Amino acid sequence: MIIKKIVVVLFALLLIVPVFSGASLVCAEEDDDETEEKSDYEKCVIDKDKEACERIAVNTQNNLQALEDQIASAKDDRDKAAALAREYAEKAEKMQGEIDALAKQIDELKVRIAELEVQIAENEAKVEALNTRVKNRMVEAQKTMHFNGYLEFILGSRSFTDMLRRVYGIEAIVSKDKADREELIAIIEQLTADKAELDAAKATLDESYQEIVAKQAELLVMKEFYEEEEARINEELDQMTEERDAIYESYEDLRDIFKEIGVTVNTGFVAAVHNSWITAPVLNYSPNFLDGKWHLGVDYAASRGTEIHAPAGGVIIRANQSCSDPGYLGSSCGYWISGGGNQVYMMCEVNGRVYGLIFFHLHSVYVSYGDYVLQDEVIGTVGSSGSSTGPHCHIEMYYLGNGELLDYLAMGWNATFSVGRGRTAYNNRCYYDDGSFRQGAPCILNPEMYLPAN
Questions:
Q1: Buried-exposed string 74-103: b where 16+ CB fall within 10 A, e elsewhere
Q2: 374 and 299 part of one domain
Q3: How far apart, in whole angstroms, are the C-alpha atoms of residue 18 and residue 22?
Q4: What pTM did the predictor assign?
Q5: Beta bridge partners of 381
Q6: What is the CATH number for 110?
Q7: What secondary structure does DSSP assign to 57-74, as a single string?
Q8: Could you read off the pLDDT of 316-363 as tens digits, one per residue?
Q9: How many angstroms separate the CA atoms of 433 and 149, rounded?
Q10: Angle at alpha carbon of residue 108, lines to 106 and 110, rounded to 5°
């Protein structure tokens, strides 16, 4: 009886378990629908998820670095193609000079050959006229005489002396005709030989001309090939640059969120002034510059003597320490920018982009023109020289373009670089005040977007 009850219970359980299993599956499916996985972007923007934001930052930096590498490689390929196109163009142009010289020689030979042909024809005509004259003379003599007219002419002499004179006369006429004929024939033979020599020379020149023209055609084909290659790579560069700028733009859209939740964005720069705080950002002090004032950089306040570090490795292009510290508000002391106090200017290249940086109001300057400084190397100390009310370092940052630092050093950036100063520079900023992308290089940047805090 007990065994029977156990069997009934087990059977009932077997019937119940599938029902509950199905119900649990249904609930699980409903939960999946309700908890659909969010993207990192949604987690970062909506939930302020630090890990998601960090993943975006890392992925973005990796993508940017990969793009910068591709852009740098493409530029190398483009430059090589451009150099080869120029090389083949120069060779083709140089060869054109040889072609023109050959063509001139051929034309001169043609003229000379034509002149010889005329001379040959004229001399052949003279020979033919001489032959005709002798022939006509003989024919006329035969028409009126039953015997040789020359013999009658001789026998009609009045004396032996007259006869000799007539014989010599006939002989002289015949000899003259013979000599003239032989001379003309000799002239014709010489002219014909000269013409044959010129024909051979012309044939050689013609062959050389055809060869060099064919080589020039090959050079021009190669020139066009590399010009097309350069144009193709430029199109790819434009696409990659647009893609990179779009990534930078989207990256900047997340900048405030990153800052809010403490995500460090790796821009390739290090902090310039440690243990500092920002007292004045990039801004214009009144709408539409009604008061004529603007602030092109960021003021990093710190104790006097605080070290200022190079945010990236680069070259010092200006350095001046001629102002006393402290200065005062309204002071014009400072070279090259009036009121900027003691100043340092440097150029650097980060991830294939070239930047210009200016540091104002220094207490001490540790670098000189032409120095190459390493990233994080101390270049001076915080001061209050020039037009200043307290110790701080005013830093301005410019995006000069893509490429190699050496190329831009050769251009001699002078802290304006087609960007200008004052209102002109502010109107040539890379981003709008809301952080959205405004224009490409050359333009002025907000250092807060690139230089890490402390």
A1: bbebbeebbebbeebbebbeebeeebeebe
A2: yes
A3: 6
A4: 0.49
A5: 307, 364
A6: 1.10.287
A7: HHHHHHHHHHHHHHHHHH
A8: 999 999 999 999 999 999 988 889 999 999 999 887 788 999 999 999
A9: 126
A10: 70
- Candidate from 102-111, 153-162, 295-304 with smallest mean pLDDT: 153-162
Task: Kindly report the number of other CB atoms within 10 A of residue 344's CB atom.
Answer: 27
Beta strands in 114-264 (DSSP E): none
Give the gyration radius of the chain's Cα atoms: 49
Query: Cβ(394)–Cβ(301) under 8 Å?
Result: no
**Single residue among 233, 257, 277 that ends a domain in this structure:** 233
∠ CA(444), CA(314), CA(379), 5° rounding?
95
Structure tokens given for 55: 């993943």
Question: Which of these, 293, 404, 424, lies nearest to 353 by C-alpha position?
Answer: 404
pLDDT higher than threshold 80 for residue 310: yes
Of 62-76, 279-293, 362-376, which has the strongest mean pLDDT? 362-376
| Domain C-terminal end among 177, 209, 233 | 233
- Rounded mean pLDDT, 190-215: 81
DSSP 287: G
* 273-291 pLDDT per residue, tens: 998 999 888 776 555 555 5
Within this chain, do residues 325 and 391 fall inside the same structural domain, yes or no? yes
Residues 158 and 281 in one domain: no
| Token pair belonging to 312 | 């990236």
**Three-class DSSP category at 153:** helix
Q: How far apart are CA 42 and CA 52, in angstroms?
A: 9
* Count of all residues that appear for the chain in the document: 454
Residues 6+ apart with CB under 8 A from 332: 338, 339, 387
Amino acid at 317: I
Shared domain for 220 and 359, answered yes or no, is no
Between CA 92 and CA 212 the distance in angstroms is 10
